[in-house]
Amino acid sequence: MNKIQHILDAFAVELKKKYGIATCQFKVDEENGTYFLTANVLLPKQKVELEKRIEASKLSVNAQIIVASELPTTDLGFAYVDHVPTNVYSRTFKKDNIRYLSTQINVKEDPVQLIWEGEEHFCVKLVDQTIGWVRKDELTRINGFPDWQPPEQKACNNKEFDAYLERWLGVPYIWGGTTMSGVDCAGLMQNIYRRCFNYLLPKHSMDQMKTGTMVTEPRKGDLAFFRSTNSDGKVIGHVGIVVDPSQKKILHASFSQKKVVINMFSEIVKPGYEFLGFYHYPVEIV
């Protein structure tokens, strides 16, 4: 039992380092030299990785690995997150002795759907279909919640739009964040569009780009998309919102500046940083 348990423990530790909590659960029994494993993980890629490790161990394992994000809708109901769950923050960036934070689920204003129950956490789904984990003691269950429907699109008053964006200036950059406690680039755009226009964007920047219409000349409120490649070869997307088309000023949650700022377009586009285009959505500033 020690060998298989060592593999599972090491896998759980790696996930905990990444997400701040162990986003998996295991139950192992042994009979006549064969291990019977029931595992719950969050994402398909975690299932693939666990299967690879089990296969590499050469142990006789009969494994049933359940992916929480692929589970059908359940009757577990809905809940509100009581506060931004700081205990699921984890390390991400460390520079000049400053510690920056990330989180898997960072939301406290909208109800979440409970899709799977662990020992200490619920796997939850947000309105935008983001999947993540929240501790049970950070949730308030509610008796019911009607089926979510996209709200009617609307125009936003220019002064109200400017005032709302100004509130975000200086908010710290937190990967995965969606609140004024901390926000990332895509979370900021999602929040602005929902609060100002009642328009729901996807959670991630590259998905946001796919839902828009590319334009040559940007208007105020259009989104600007970029991408770069890190040292590991991973493509990283970035997005900001046009606040001054004539001067091409863009408000965005800046990773390098660690907060929400307004930059000139030319200050964002640097060597190794590719501009993908301006995109328009069915919203209006009046």
Automatic annotation (TrEMBL):
Record flagged with keyword Plastid: no
Hydrolase keyword on record: yes
InterPro entries: Murein_DD/LD_carboxypeptidase (IPR052062), NLP_P60_dom (IPR000064), Papain-like_cys_pep_sf (IPR038765)
GO molecular function annotation: cysteine-type peptidase activity
GO aspect biological process, one term: proteolysis
PANTHER family, alphabetized: ENDOPEPTIDASE NLPC-RELATED (PTHR47360:SF1), MUREIN DD-ENDOPEPTIDASE MEPS/MUREIN LD-CARBOXYPEPTIDASE (PTHR47360)
Record-stated family: Belongs to the peptidase C40 family.
Protein keywords: Hydrolase, Protease, Signal, Thiol protease
Species for this entry: Candidatus Abawacabacteria bacterium RBG_16_42_10
Domain spans labelled NlpC/P60: 155-282
Any one Pfam family match given in the protein's UniProt record, by short name: NLPC_P60
The name this protein goes by in its record: NlpC/P60 domain-containing protein
